[in-house]
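Hi R.,

As promised on Friday, here is the backbone we talked about, encoded as structure tokens. Could you run it through your design pipeline when you get a chance and send me back a sequence?
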């Protein structure tokens, strides 16, 4: 089973995303900030990471930048997930190493669509 890490400071968002990803065939794990997410990826590198932008301790941009520098950190598919739809935010996320971007609120069809486009679903 493919591993997915959901990184968001909202417990509700993490739970909703975990449910969606489990139903899509992933083994979800959760982290409430980028620092805890880095600890998690050092233990087991995920196949996919769904990452919030604004978080305490270490935000999403810092996490993705740090992830991409780790051994094997180039492998996970990274999808930024945020309520901010400004073009410069999307560009910054992609420049930091994200593969795609989704807006909150999201549903299973949006997540399925992005993961299918990125080749993470069969």
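Update: got your reply. Pasting your designed sequence below so it's all in one thread:
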């Amino acid at each position: 089973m493919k591993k997915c890490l959901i990184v968001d400071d909202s417990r509700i968002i993490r739970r909703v995303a975990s449910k969606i990803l489990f139903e899509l065939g992933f083994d979800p794990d959760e982290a409430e900030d980028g620092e805890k997410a880095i600890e998690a990826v050092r233990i087991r590198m995920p196949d996919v990471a769904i990452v919030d932008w604004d978080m305490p301790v270490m935000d999403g941009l810092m996490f993705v930048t740090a992830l991409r520098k780790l051994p094997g950190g180039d492998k996970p598919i990274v999808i930024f997930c945020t309520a901010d739809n400004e073009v410069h935010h999307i560009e910054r996320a992609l420049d930091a190493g994200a593969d795609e971007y989704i807006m909150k609120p999201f549903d299973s069809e949006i997540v399925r669509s992005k993961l299918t486009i990125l080749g993470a679903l069969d």
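One thing I noticed while checking it: Residues 2-107 form a domain with the Rossmann fold fold (CATH 3.40.50.2300).

Thanks again,
M.
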